[in-house]
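Could you show me some protein's one-letter sequence and the numbers that encode its backbone in two labelled lines?

___
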Amino acid sequence: MSGTVDQDSLWVRFLTWFGSSRTGAWTIITLGTKLDRWLIRATNGKYNATLAWPCLLLTTKGAKTGRARTVSLVYYQDGEDIIFIASKGGNLHHPAWYLNLKANPEVDVFLDGKSATYTAHEASGDERKRLWAKAVELYKGYETYKDRAGEREIPVVILKPS
């Protein structure tokens, strides 16, 4: 897993509690992403709004508009692959970035001060279970999101270097 997160630190416990709430998830998705689009680029990925979990910038092509759309996301690495959870804070609907990459799977990633092209696909079966378990190790709030999402299965997205 990329980056070690001290799950017992007061800051991580607070952020997990706050981020797992509806208000916290909205704040992180709405305000954190806006701040991170600047902060991650300005610090070459050294800092992000959470100050706890590794984040990067994902740029997708809009499914309807074709315009570039950039969002910050918590991620981890599985070998050379980058893994995301399309949770949208447990919302009943998929995040827009996920719908964009389903329509246009070639994406740009800004990570550690460098941009690279990746191709996205969704994990399934045993691979999904394994990657989901690793994601929950990184951020325990994903379990809350899973419950909140109702019938929607939260996608686990794999980015492979192009």
